[in-house]
Amino acid sequence: MSPSAYPALSFELYPPRNSEAQESLWTTVQRLEETRPDFVSVTYGAAGSNREAAIGLLRHLLTDTTLKPLAHLTCVGSTRVELVEIVERLLDGGVRGLLALRGDLPEGRTEPSGEIRYADEFVRLIREVESGRTAQLAAGKVSVGVAAYAMRHPESESLEQDVAVLLAKEAAGADFAITQIFFRRSDYAGLLTRARDAGVTIPIIPGLIPFTSPRRLTKLCDLAGIEPDRDLMARLEEAEDDDARRSLGVGATVELGRAVLDEGAPGIHLYTFNQPTAALDVLEALDLARPPEAGSAVTL
Ligand code: FAD
After folding, report:
1. pTM of the prediction?
2. For residue 156, what is the domain's CATH number?
3. Pocket of ligand 1, beta carbon within 6 A
């Protein structure tokens, strides 16, 4: 397989919580579109708690922009029938990229319940739905992504278990993976080495968070069950004002972005939190090579 001359570029958005947030999100989307990303991912609440808002955002991307959406889906708390239904609905609506996730367990549970318990089973289910639509999908198969962890997933016993699970997701039919938040070059490099040694061959796209808000980083790390980088957090806390903090955070993210690209990352996935500024600042400083007119007939 010959590698693309251009690193992949993508952004993550979450569905708006109300109509005010929706207005400002449409502006964010417009600004991100100017950078011609390869795809834009749309998060999904565990058990589909914000399903209609997610579908609304996907519809906006498909109908009002040139952007290609990657729809996150979670299987925890849903029945097999419900999952088939949502996958079919998205495929019928023109979505061709799905990120198959388990989702976090509800408070107090230590084991998943239900018919589809882990992400590898969900990938298999998506492939089953897809195989029933081969004729409709003649112009392009579904691309299925999964989560990968550079820092141990809190329910896993070890980093090796995380990689064994990633291999199982690839065996089930995953095409690519996107990582959870991490802080150091060595976190990503370690994941790549472990994954390749274990036989994982799919691209592992690093998910980068602009390190501009210590509060947000603490919250995200709590949610993901990982430790924030102490040195970075201290430097952010000690910055003399918001401007200094932002510039330090953008600088640290750019440094990490360059480092992971040097390690062989296939591209960069930027978490935006629906605000374009920090992600665009990171992107500008990274100066990623982009195709002249990505996705347009001009380049054919
Ligand atoms: P899995 O791959 O199923 O793994 C979950 C845990 O179970 C791991 O500890 C794994 O080691 C273990 N495990 C897996 N298979 C087995 C097995 N057969 N037997 C025993 N143990 C097993 N969450 C949302 O709710 N909405 C989102 O939109 C969302 N987007 C995300 C995007 C990215 C890029 C990432 C990295 C995460 C995202 N998450 C999202 C969070 C994700 O749902 C959680 O991290 C969740 O706890 C695990 O999901 P998973 O798909 O990795 O699960």
Report:
1. 0.96
2. 3.20.20.220
3. 43-44, 46, 72, 74, 101-104, 118-119, 147, 153, 155-156, 161-162, 165, 178-180, 207
